[in-house]
C-alpha cells in the first residue's frame, strides 16, 4: 500500500485540520477526488441528452443486482451489481433503438420491473434489512481495496471517454448525421450506457440508491447554466462536482450528517447559485 502511504503523508502535510487525523476521512477524500470527476464528466451527457430518468433507472437496476448477488450467495455482491447493471443498461438502450415507444415509457417499464424484482428477491431471502444501507450509502466505509478498484475504474472510464466522446456528442446532436458519417449509433450509446452503469454500480454502496442520480445530474445542470461551449461545460461540471464532493465530505464530518446527502446539498446550492448568475456568464 505504498501509494496510499504516500497519500496519507501528503494529506497530513498539506491539510492541518482535525479531520485529517482519521484514516477513513483520508480514504473518503481520495475517493471523492477520483469519483466526483466521473460524475461531472458523464453527467454532462446525461443532462445534454435528457437521460436523468435513465440514470435513475440504473440505480434501480443496481439494487436488483444486489438482490441477485444475495440470491447467488455472494458475500460481496459487487460483481453481480456491475454485471446486471451493464446488461440492464444495454437492454434498455437496444430496445430504445428498436421500439417506436417513447424513451420515457421504455425506461419506466424497465425501472419498475427492476425495483419490483429486487424487492421480491430481497423479501423472499429475508436480506432486505442487511442491504438496506445501500439505499443511503456510507462514503466513510471505503477501504484501501475499494480505493484501488475506484482508481482502476477511473482510468478505464477516462480512456473510454476519450475514445467515444466525439461519437457520443454527434449522436446526441443528430443521430441521422452520425449514421451518415459511418458512426454506429447503437454501439456508441451502448458503450456510454455501460460506462454509466459501471460508475453507478461501484458508487451506489457509498453514495446510496436514493441520491445516486443527483450526483450525476446536479453538477452538469449547474455547469450548463454558466457554460458558453462544450469545453467550458465539461470543465465547470468537473469542478462543481469536485467542489461539492470535498465540501460535502468535510462539512458532513463537522455536522455529523450523511456524507452523500451533504454532497448533494452542496451540489444543489451550486445549481441555484449558477442559475442566479447565468445571465452574467452568458451575456
UniProtKB/TrEMBL annotation:
GO CC terms in record: ATP-binding cassette (ABC) transporter complex
Provide the topology term for how it sits in the membrane: Multi-pass membrane protein
**InterPro entries with a match to the protein in the record:** ABC_BtuC-like, ABC_TroCD
Q: Where in the cell is it found?
A: Membrane
Decide whether keyword Amino-acid biosynthesis is in the record.
no
The similarity comment for this entry is: Belongs to the ABC-3 integral membrane protein family.
- What is this protein's record name? High-affinity zinc uptake system membrane protein ZnuB
Organism listed in the record: bioreactor metagenome
| Lineage, uppermost ranks | unclassified sequences, metagenomes, ecological metagenomes
Amino acid at each position: 500500500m505504498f501509494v496510499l502511504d504516500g497519500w496519507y503523508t501528503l494529506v497530513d502535510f498539506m491539510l492541518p485540520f482535525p479531520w485529517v487525523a482519521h484514516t477513513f476521512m483520508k480514504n473518503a477524500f481520495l475517493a471523492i477526488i477520483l469519483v466526483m470527476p466521473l460524475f461531472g464528466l458523464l453527467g454532462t451527457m446525461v443532462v445534454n441528452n435528457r437521460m436523468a430518468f435513465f440514470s435513475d433507472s440504473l440505480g434501480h437496476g443496481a439494487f436488483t443486482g444486489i438482490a441477485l448477488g444475495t440470491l447467488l450467495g455472494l458475500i460481496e455482491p459487487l460483481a453481480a451489481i456491475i454485471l446486471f447493471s451493464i446488461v440492464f443498461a444495454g437492454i434498455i438502450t437496444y430496445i430504445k433503438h428498436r421500439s417506436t415507444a417513447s424513451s420515457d415509457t421504455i425506461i419506466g417499464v424497465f425501472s419498475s420491473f427492476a425495483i419490483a424484482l429486487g424487492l421480491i428477491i430481497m423479501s423472499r431471502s429475508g436480506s432486505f434489512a442487511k442491504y438496506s444501507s445501500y439505499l443511503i450509502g456510507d462514503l466513510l466505509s471505503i477501504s484501501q481495496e475499494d480505493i484501488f478498484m475506484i482508481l482502476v475504474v477511473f482510468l478505464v472510464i477516462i480512456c473510454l471517454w476519450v475514445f467515444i466522446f466525439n461519437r457520443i456528442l454527434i449522436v446526441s446532436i443528430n443521430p441521422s448525421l452520425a449514421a451518415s458519417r459511418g458512426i454506429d449509433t447503437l454501439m456508441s450509446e451502448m458503450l456510454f450506457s455501460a460506462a454509466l452503469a459501471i460508475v453507478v454500480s461501484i458508487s451506489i454502496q457509498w453514495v446510496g440508491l436514493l441520491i445516486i442520480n443527483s450526483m450525476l445530474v446536479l453538477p452538469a445542470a449547474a455547469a450548463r447554466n454558466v457554460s458558453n461551449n462544450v469545453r467550458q461545460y465539461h470543465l465547470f461540471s468537473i469542478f462543481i462536482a469536485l467542489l461539492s464532493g470535498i465540501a460535502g465530505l468535510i462539512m458532513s464530518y463537522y455536522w455529523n450528517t450523511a456524507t452523500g446527502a451533504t454532497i448533494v446539498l452542496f451540489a444543489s446550492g451550486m445549481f441555484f447559485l449558477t442559475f442566479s448568475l447565468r445571465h452574467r456568464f452568458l451575456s
